[in-house]
Amino acid sequence: MTSPGDGTPVKPPPSFSPGAALASSKSRYTDGQEVTHSIDTELTEARSVSSPTAPLSATTAELPIRSASPQRSVRSSTPQLARSSLGSPFDGRFDGSEDIRSLIIRAFSPTVAVHASDDTDELVRNKGFKGGFRELVRPFGETVQGKVIIRDSVGSSRAWEDFGVRFVDLKGFGRSPANRDSGRDSPLAQTEEVLEKQLNSAEGPAGAVPTKDVLGFPATTPLCKLFLRQLLASTSVGPHETFGHPVASVITISSRNPAPLETLRQLYAESNTGDKRLPEWVNQEYLRYYVLIHDEERDDITESTKLYDQMKRHFGLHCHLLRLRSSQCVVTDDDSVQVPQCEWLSPHERLSGAGEAGMFTHPELLQTSSNAQTETLVDLGTDSTPYLFDSDVTAIKTFIRELIVQSVIPFMENRVAVWNDQVASRRRGISGRFMSMSRRWAGFGSSSRSGIGGSSGGGSGNYDPNQNFYGPDSPEAILRKMADFAVMLRDWKLSASTYEIIRSDFGNDKAWKYHAAAHEMCAVSTLLNPMAMSAKIKLESVDQMFETACYSYLTRCSDSTHALRCLALAVELLKSRGGSATESAARWAMRVMDFGLVGSVGQVLFMERVAACYASKTPAGGAKWGARRRKAGMWSIFAADQWLKLGKPNLASACVEEAERLYAEVLETDGVFPMPEMQAFVDNLRHAVKVEYLEARGFDARDESATHHPLDTEETSEKLEKIDKRNHRRSLIGLPGQLDAGNLKMTATARESGNSPNDDFERA
Amino acid sequence: MSYYFTILSPTDTPIFNIAFGTSKGGGDGIARFRFPDTAQYMNQFIIHSSLDIVEEAQWINGGMYLKHIDTYPPAAAYISAFLTPSGARFLLLHQPPQLPSGTSSGLGSSSLLGSSASTTRASSSSVAANPTSPQTEEAVRQFMNEVYESYVKTAMSPFYKQGMEIKSPVFRTKVTGAGKKWL
């Protein structure tokens, strides 16, 4: 098998010097300085976002001028599409929808199981990683250094910069608590809990933290992204989809091992037949990769090299010698590098590891939020964030790159080609169609199979209705796996067509979970495929697929986690499609609220999403009509109302601000609604937000002690105005008086820039 | 069904508002929206937001009556629109009664039998419980036409200037009458 990466040296090519890598994966590092570096790009990017969320600068007075240029938004929507179809998926990293797309794409990454010997884990534990080897490599696996070239089924190759894999522990695989779908432990409840925690921690003692970007409104709020990421990370491993099933398994020993080859054999046997065998619905044909960890400080390199050569002779090419130092690295060491934090922590891990470094992994949040959070980070950073030596980091990165580029991807490409050839093409051909048709009319086709086919009502008989899964060798399971591989390799054309083949089979077999998952992924891959979809009919079929998936998940399997994931994907992907798809995205978001799949925080988040969906609908062809500003504004106002009810005045004020901006274009006079009751409601809301915001910041204590109560706005509005002016005056003389939106931003910026050197100090 | 009817001037200012309920099928003609009484602003929000769609639909649809143009799913509110040549827009929000727990309507609080009887009666009338049915469209069209007639007469009054709020009690009675007759 010729891999595209065969010829390339192990080290990343020079064009991916650390600087370039940093800039490309900016959202992953919490570097304050970098924010300032990329301000220009981000500014331009933010302006060209197709939504009307042009950067909102200092004062709201400027609003109408800024957002009243539909032409700009029209222009921007075209390059976005063109860009995504042109190849480099990375250009638009900073603009909202591309960012979300990348997030979704990365959510479907291959899984690599880690099977380490005890001596390896002990070595790694000495380095300060309690979780063993997997914990050491996991954060690095989420982004592979440099470009990864993947060939699709038609043979054209494409480079990706944001490729990654998930490392999981083979020991705990598939043995996660089985019934977590209800009660407090369900992934959904946990996701909600994480959100609340994040909200509360962002609140901090100093009061409100503007979660929006410094430069104005990003198309997606960080909280929303956190929600989506949590949701995508929370789905448990099951038979009906193979994204969580290992594509490869890394078997690791260290140079301390007295009987290395025997241990390797034993580990292999354990994973194959022993008690660490994967559940029977997992296809056992995955790649084995052997790693020898050489302890630089205690062991002799010549011995290790000899052993490594021996390993190569025994196991072939899929071997790697990883040279690590065994002593623990501390911050004060010369070449210490902080270990990047995991991006894809499941809600469960996030909650249990709240005291550890896992909590504040969100670059967006770190970047944008101010001192409250950074302080927490400082606390965490000093004691529990592990550090590594620079040489170790380089070694691990090289190892992972080699693993992926030279072994995992060629293996997956090969499997897809083989299955495509052997299984899928048989189904695609005319005889395959006839076979599946005749099977449906029970009697003809089922004669070749055992009698089960007849009894299960014309099903193929490969589905085991008692245990609810297909055997891993049945054509259905293999096709599903092949399609999933294609998704992981980002060949969405192949995956969509494969899901298309199998989705009706699952329905015939009454394998409802498979049925739902295949429909979901079929729609998702159709939407992810940049080439497809121009006709409206296609959009309708996608809607139909989501509808079916959702119905199967909810009604037939009562699996709300997957249903919510499916709907959230529908919302985000349809929204990123633009045009009339945004309206159907908004409709799905409303469906989520209607189904009651999310808790109170989630409800508001989806309200914001509805607003964002409508806001991203741009007028057609330069005409003045066709936008959905009023709808977007309405939803923002409602979201603000809900945030206020949840006691988050900072978020509410951000929403009000957004609404004002959206309404600016459609209202005759700025901020004056033609309808009296609307006007009254919006005015009340604004006042309430102001009052609560001030209270949260402790202004009442300083200005006029105990003057107002947040609820009776009518009574306090006069006083408020007094405070209002006072604060304006204060803001002029430089104190943080943040009554209106603009000031809030300015101070945020100021604080941000004030903080960035601090960050640097921490990282250094 | 509950209705909220608004006439908007070309500059989006409301010049006439009325809320009423169905008089068909034993309805008493009093509006009972799904929002709590403190949230009546919702109607205006929904009407206002549907202007986006009106603006789009008026270029696509050639007729004066644009039919059902918009829906607000969370509250099951449906919007129908009618354009006049002078640029005024008639917007009718209609909302079917809440079936499972209509505590305020008094009908839903009775037994299942009672509520089902009321729905069958409602569906036998011209305006069915389904707001997108052809019968509803037709009834709304008739209503709009009748209101349009009285609107033209009112607007021709020498004391009325374009864009002014319509305060004429005669007009109000006529709209109420049309609502009773058709909806």
From TrEMBL, chain A:
Domain of life according to the entry: Eukaryota
Coiled coil segments of this chain: none
Bias type Polar residues, positions: 47-60, 68-87
Matching Pfam families: TRAPPC-Trs85
GO cellular component entries: TRAPPIII protein complex
Biased composition (Gly residues): 451-461
Annotated spans, Disordered: 1-93, 445-467
Protein name: Transport protein particle subunit trs85-2
Lineage of the organism: Eukaryota, Fungi, Dikarya, Ascomycota, Pezizomycotina
TrEMBL record, chain B:
Highest taxon above the source species: Eukaryota
Coiled-coil blocks: none
Signal peptide: none
Matches recorded under Pfam families: Sedlin_N
Cellular component GO terms held in the UniProt record: cytoplasm
GO biological process terms on file: endoplasmic reticulum to Golgi vesicle-mediated transport
Region of interest (Disordered), residue spans: 102-136
Compositionally biased spans, kind Low complexity: 102-129
The protein's name in its UniProt record: Trafficking protein particle complex subunit 2/Sedlin
Naturally occurring in which organism (per UniProt): Penicillium atrosanguineum
